[in-house]
Amino acid sequence: MNCLRCQSPMMSEVFQNLSGDAGVVWFTGWRCIVCGDMVDPIILKHRQRAQPPPISRTRRRFTVALR
Question: pLDDT per residue over 51-63, tens digit each?
Fold first, then answer.
């Protein structure tokens, strides 16, 4: 698997969630070896559901009138 941010290889890793109400929860995911981005099956599922960003956004130019 390649990183969605920097296209570098990712490695499989086991993570633990210490803040869960049920105690320690272990889950597997992937971590990018270059940028450190973490992805697990839940994150991938949410990214697939998310709306794609607009293709282009135009910015207004602000001009300052000098006197």
Answer: 766 666 666 666 6
